[in-house]
Recover the amino acids of this structure.
């Protein structure tokens, strides 16, 4: 596939995966709304004082600025857009699986704006499940057990949902 144009304006996207490269850099797989999946080098991102280090998080909306015309771009700026809960527990595993599917099934630089919107919606839902599980744990019991107990006149029939495999 022919590489796209050079510098990109700030584009919304997500980090799908990152891996160390050389001494202080990272290679990050990005999913951008208007560009699709891209790879980029984040030079110096592993340094403790790097401005990129705290921003390049999975499952968080980020505005990226990239430069270069090759298949491996250079990440020049990343700004956290905020406002999304991080998945936890089983939802976190589903989030990692979702990232793997996007990485393996999308061709490089093949934009899919509708898929990007669906991915964003899925991350919002996965983040919401993490908050629900935390609220169950904070209330000293399973929300499903409490609702089942209320339906059965006070008898606890155990947890019926797949989220709480250890209660019951």
């Amino acid at each position: 596939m022919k590489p796209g144009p050079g510098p990109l304006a700030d584009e919304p996207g997500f980090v799908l995966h990152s891996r160390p490269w050389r001494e202080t850099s990272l290679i990050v797989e990005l999913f951008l709304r208007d560009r699709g999946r891209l790879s980029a080098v984040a030079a110096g991102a592993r340094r403790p004082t790097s401005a990129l280090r705290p921003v390049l998080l999975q499952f968080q909306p980020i505005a990226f600025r990239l430069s270069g015309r090759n298949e491996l771009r250079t990440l020049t700026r990343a700004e956290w857009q905020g406002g999304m809960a991080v998945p936890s527990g089983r939802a976190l595993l589903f989030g990692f699986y979702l990232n793997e599917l996007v990485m393996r099934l999308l061709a490089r630089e093949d934009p899919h704006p509708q898929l990007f919107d669906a991915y964003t919606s899925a991350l919002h839902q996965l983040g919401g499940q993490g908050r629900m599980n935390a609220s169950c744990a904070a209330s000293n019991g399973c929300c499903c057990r409490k609702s089942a107990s209320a339906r059965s006149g006070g008898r606890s029939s155990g947890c019926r949902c797949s989220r709480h495999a250890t209660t019951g």
About this structure: The two ends are 53 Å apart (CA to CA). Residues 19 and 58 are 12 Å apart (CA to CA). The beta strands are 11-21, 25-32, 36-42, 62-67, 72-80.
